[in-house]
Design goal:
71 residues; globular; 0% strand; Nickel-dependent lactate racemase
Length: 71
């Protein structure tokens, strides 16, 4: 049995982690003209957090994987 009770994906995100996710979310919403209070924006936020939890911590890479433009 593993000594670890929780998967790292189950751990809460720190403030710095959330800042990265927020910046990426804002950038992609702006790039794709997504209203931030929409369900589409909520789904995008969930995707970004899931990608981050899976180990994608580079903002540029997160933007691309979340559907943002190269740039």
């Amino acid at each position: 049995m593993s000594d670890k009770l929780f998967n790292t994906r189950d751990e809460p995100l720190a403030s710095a982690d959330l800042d990265v996710c927020r910046r990426v979310h804002e950038a992609v919403c702006t790039e794709l003209d997504i209203e931030r209070s929409s369900e589409k924006a909520d789904n995008l936020g969930a995707l970004i957090i899931e990608l981050y939890r899976q180990g994608v911590h580079d903002e540029h890479q997160l933007r691309l994987l979340a559907g943002g433009r190269h740039g």
